[in-house]
Amino acid sequence: MEKELKYKRVLLKLSGESLMGDKSEGIDPKMLTYFAKEVEKILNYGVEVCVVIGGGNIYRGLNAAEQGIDRVAGDQMGMLATVINSIALQNAFENHGMYTRLMTAIEMQEIAEPYIRRRAMRHLEKGRIVIFGAGTGHPYFSTDTAAALRAVEIVADVVFKGTRVDGIYDSDPEKNKDAIKYDAITYKDVLNKGLRVMDLTAISLCQENNLPVVVFNMNKENNLLKLVSGENIGTRVTH
User: Fold this and answer.
1) Domains of the chain (ranges plus CATH)?
2) Which one, of 237, 227, 232, lies nearest residue 4 by Cα?
3) 0.90 exceeded by the pTM?
């Protein structure tokens, strides 16, 4: 019997750091395999999946100033780092028999298709995983904002933000054992309380377009499958 799905089209946002696994930088092949297997589970139920991944495991544009690199150049280097991660993810997905398309906001046609909204939606309808690389293509915008923007454009039902903690807390649960978890919270409260879920631009974009965000622990097996099935895990951000 086919599993009852709460979401049909999802955008999965992963941090570049999530690819490091136990390493201090770079890409851990075990994490690529793990992510591929988790995504495959929901793809097999007919969920349409697109992915945005950061580049922090390779290069952080925000820290570029410390190295004497101006913000614009640093952000451009960060965008290219996301493309490296996107290619690695694409390879992992395809090694597990899934069909993918990598689309980038900066044209690099020997590597990826340029991002075209209608084409991206057609790929999703055909059951291909679409990976969006190079952020928005513009400096000063994070990959969180890129995820929110692409999700709105391709009419996703939800943004799943995969982290290493099981939701949103009132303080850092890795530093404060008494931190309180929210099961649900409004966009307004996220902004007012200064909770570092996504950056302000991303949250505002989701709020304006009534796009729900679910923050959850991606490192726990089957969590992604539970989410698309409607189980209440993680923290849901809505109006």
Assistant:
1) 9-238 (3.40.1160.10)
2) 227
3) yes
